[in-house]
Fold:
Amino acid sequence: MLINTECQYFTEQFPLSIIIIKTERIKEIMKCLLLRKWTICFFFGLLLSSMLPGFQVKAEETAEAVLDDSGILQSGGLLQEEEALSPLRVRSSGNTAGARKALTNAIDRIASTVDLTSYQITTSELKSLLSSAVNNNPKYFYYKSCSYTYSPSNNQAKVVTLRYSGSAAAIRPQIAAYEQAVQNILGNVQSSWSSFEKAMYVNDYLALNCRYDSTYSKYSAYNALVEGTAVCQGYGLAYQELMGRLNIPCQLVSSDPLNHAWNLIQINGSWYHVDVTWNDPVSDRPGRARHLYLLKSTGWFQSTGKHIQNGKTDYVYSNGATDASASSQVYDNYFWNDIDSPFGYYNGSWYTNNGNVLYRYQFNSTGMTGSSILKALNQRWPVFNGSGTWGGTYGGCIVYGSKLYYASPTSIQVLDLTNPAAAEKTVFTLPSDQQNRGYIYGFHIDSDGKLFYGLSDSPNTAPVTYSQPLHTHTYGSWTVTKAATCTENGQRQQACTDCGTVKTESIAATGHLYGDWKITKAATCTENGQRQQVCSNCKTAKTESIAATGHLHQKTTTTAATFKKTGKTVVTCQDCNTVLKSKTIAKIKCKKGKTYTVGNYKYKIVSAKTNGKGTVSFVGLAKNVKKVTIGDTVKILGVKFKIVQIGDKALKNQTSVTSVTIGKNVTSIGKEAFYGTKKLKTITIKSTRITKVGSNAFKKVYSKAKIKVPKTKLKKYKTLMKSKGQKSTVKIAGN
Structure:
C-alpha cells in the first residue's frame, strides 16, 4: 500500500519498523487519505510526524492481514504456481512441519484460532502451508479463509484466526455426513481389487451419483459426495479424497486457461490423467458413465483438443508434478474408450454393456485379463414418432447386488448372476401415461433400491428423469467385519436377504484414553522439549514436542563509540548467556564545526585533533542554569579539548544566568556572547590570553555587574572590553 515515494506503509512484502514522512509531502498524504477513505485517527501519528521534521513514528509490534479464499479449490479457486508447492519444498529457518501440523489440527477441531508464534514461520510460508493443507485435504470443505497477525519487523506470522462456512455446531453434522458417504462408497471396495480396478470403480461411482452443477456454485468434495452435485473442482476433490483413502497417490490438476480441474493418479508406478467431469455426461443421464478420459497420458489429453485452450497447455499440479509425469500411453487406446455404461462387480468379475452386448470381464493389476459374452441384447431404439431406428443401444446396465439390470426402449430386465443361464425377467415397464413421452435412455438404481430412469425422444435430447421404488431391501443383522480400535474406524455390514445388496457402515474409532501429560525432556531456549501421554487401553504413547522457549529474556549492552575507539552493541540471553547479536559501532569522526553536549553545556569543535591538542568553543546551554562555569578543558567522547572560545551569542537572552566563570585557555569572546543576560551579576575571567571580544558581548547584562579579570591584565582587558554594549555602571576589576 503506497502513499508516495517517500512513505511506504509496512506490508508483508516490505515490513517497516519506522516510517518517516517529509514535511513537504503532507498535502500529498492528505489527498491519499481522502481518496482512499482511510480514517484520520489511523494515520494521526503519520500526520503528526509530517508536521515535525525529523520526528520518527515507530510501527506497531503486531500488524494484521487477511488471507482470502481466492486460491482455495473448495471455494472455486484454481491452483497457482506458488500454491502448488509441496510443504516439503518450503525452505525456512522456522518449524514449517510443526506449523502445518498445528494448522491441520486446528481445522480438524474447527478451532477459531491457532497461535503459530513459536514456529517462527513467515507470512509467505503461512500462505503456502494453508493452501497446500486445504487443497490437498478435500475433507476440509468447510474452511473458507483466515486473517492473521504478524510482526512487521521480521514478517513472522503470529496468531491465525480461521473462518469456516458456519458454526462448529453446524459443521460437525456435515463432517459426519461426509465421512458416512465416504464409508458407504468405500464399503463396496473389495480387498482383492487392484489399484486399476479401484480407479475405475470410483470414476464410475461419481459419474453415476453426481451431476454437474449448472449453477457453478458447488466446488467441494462435500457437494459431490453428500449433495450429489458439483462443478469440476468438486468432482476432482471427491476423486482425490476417495483415491487417497484407498492409498492410491492422487493429485489435483488445475488449468487457468481452461478454467477446469481434474486429477492425476499413480497406477503401478506411472501417472495418468483422470477427468471424471468429462466422463459424466452433461446434461445428466441416469446410469451413464464414460471411460474415455480415464487413465490417459498427457499427450493423449492434449491431442483431443479438450484440454487445450488457444494453444496453451499450462496445467498446475497440487503436489509439484509436471506434464511429463503422465507419459505412459498404456490406456490411451484401451477397449473401454467407447463404453458409456458403468462397470459393475459381482463375485470376481466385472459386467458392462459394450456395444449392445453384455460382457463379463476379469482384471488384474494392469488391466483386462479375460472377457466373455454374457448376452447379446440385439436392442434398437426406435425413432420416436417416426420410422426407423437409431444405430446403437442406449439403455446401459447396472449390477445391483447379485443381479444385472439392463434396459430396452420401454422396459428394464434383470439377469440373476448367480445363475446367468436362467431366463431374464422384466422388472419394470413404462407406465401407459409415459409411453407417449419417449424411450428409456439410461437408468440407475441407488443404494436404497430406488429406480431412476430417463425418458427422451432421442439420444441427442436431454432426458427427463423419473423415479420409483424398484426393490425394498430386507436387511439381516449387522455383522462386524472390522472391529474399531483406538485409532481406526471399524466396519459393519448388512446384506439384503432378497437381492444380496450389502449395506456398509462405519464404526467410529473409540479414540485413545490418554492419561496426564508427563514431561520427558524440558524445553530450553534453543532445543525443543518433549512430553508424553499413554493410552490406558492400547498403551500407545503419544509424544508431543514442546517448542523451544526461545531467548525470552534478552539484555542489550551498548559500549558507545568514541573518537578513539569503536563501540559495540551486544544482545545476550539472560537465561543461557548466548550472544544473540553483536554489532560494532564505528569510531566517531571528529569534524570541525560539529556541536556536542557535555552535561549542561554545548561545545563546537574548532580544531579537530584527537591527540589532546584539539580546541572547542563554548556555544550555549543544554538547559537553564544559574551559575555557568566554563572550564579550561572539556572531555568529549573520550578526548580532552581546550576551551579556547566563547562563541557568538553563546548565552544570549539566558535570563536565568547569574554568574559566569571563564577558564584560562579562552582566547576570544564572541559577539553578543552575554547579550540580554539581565540577571548576570558576576563574570570571572581566569584567562590571561584573551585577545578579542566581539561587539555587544556584554550588552544588556545586569546594570551593576562586575567583570573580574586577572590583575596583570586589568589595564589591557579594560581597553579590550571597552564599548562592548555594557552600561557604564558595569565595573571591570582585578581579581
